[in-house]
Structure formats: C-alpha cells, structure tokens
Write a structure and sequence with these properties.
With 162 residues, this protein is an alpha+beta fold. It is built from three helices and six strands, in the order E-H-E-E-H-E-H-E-E. The structure holds tetrahydrodeoxyuridine (THU).
C-alpha cells in the first residue's frame, strides 16, 4: 500500500479590485448576468460568463423548473451555448457569481458536482484548461487555473474508449 496526496494551488484575492482589468470585467459581467437567472424556487441567482479563445464572450444563468431536477445550473447553460455556437473553441476563462434572496452574497461559490463533471468534459473535448474566477457580489475572489482540478479521480470518456 502507498498513500497518494492530491493537492492543487489556487489564488485568493481580497476583492475584485486586485484583479487584472480583464478578469475584473468578466467577474463584473457574471455579477450582472445573475439578473437574468430564473430561480423562483431557490432564490439563488447564478451568473456565468465565458471568454473564449476566439475572443467571444458567452453568458448564462441558472434556469429552474417547477419539476426541480429539470433545472440547469448557469455553468452548464454556458457550456451548452459555447459547444453549440463555437464547437472546438477553448474556453480560456469562466467567471461565476451569484446573488441570493436569502443568504449573503459576499463570498465565492464553487461549481456543483454535475457542473464539475461537465467542465471537465469540455476541457477534454478541446484539450485546454478552463480557468475559473469565483466571486460573490462582493468579497474575496478565487482563481482556479484548471476546472478539472476540482474533480480528482474523475470518470472520463477515456473509460469508454473515447
Ligand atoms: N446553481 C448554479 O447555477 N451553479 C452552481 O454552481 C451552484 C448552483 C444553481 C442551481 C439552482 O438553480 C440554484 O443554484 C440553487 O442550487
């Protein structure tokens, strides 16, 4: 037997003002796109904005449904749009923000498990990392260089012969 240690490095900034101009702009866009979310059931409005390698900007927000499992997270709305509109183009950076009607929106949130799986698949499809910028409407900001680092020991298409 031997034990394996998994670790990765990410950056923590005290506020959006410490980011580069482009990163700050992307996070600000993600903050604003929370306004487009349809989240009457959770009152948790998420916005995601992707900057593609071809310079395109694609935004999305969570879209809930009275049949709860039908709802889509903001991240997967963006991934589906990118894959449909610009197939094979890498996503360089995705900024993710939120605002809530019930809890403070002053710290970063991290993508849910299903979105981590989807982000990883997109990285694999285009063979390029997706850099994540995570932040609330205020407060600290996390930058994670590669989304799939959030999903160690993951199941991938390789297991299916892809
Ligand atoms: N949600 C997202 O859109 N992205 C995340 O990273 C976490 C959760 C949505 C799903 C649901 O509509 C609401 O937030 C509460 O879970």
């Amino acid at each position: 037997m031997h034990a394996v240690n998994y670790q990765f490095t990410y950056e923590i900034y005290d506020s959006i003002s410490e980011l580069t101009e482009e990163d700050a702009w992307l996070l600000e866009e993600a903050r604003q796109v929370t306004e487009q979310a349809y989240a009457p059931y959770s009152n948790f409005y998420v916005g995601a904005v992707a900057k593609l390698a071809n310079g395109e900007i694609i935004a999305g927000s969570n879209q809930e449904n009275a049949s709860f499992p039908v709802g889509l997270c903001a991240e997967r709305v963006v991934l589906a749009s990118v894959a449909s509109l610009f197939p094979k183009i890498p996503i360089e950076t995705m900024a993710i923000s939120y605002q809530s009607g019930t809890v403070e929106s002053n710290h970063p949130i991290s993508p849910c498990g299903i979105c981590r799986q989807s982000l990883q698949e997109y990285e694999g499809r285009v063979r390029a990392p997706i850099r994540l910028i995570l932040g609330g409407q205020s407060g600290k900001v996390y930058i994670i260089p590669k989304a799939s680092w959030l999903l160690p020991l993951s199941f991938t298409g390789e297991e299916l012969g892809i």
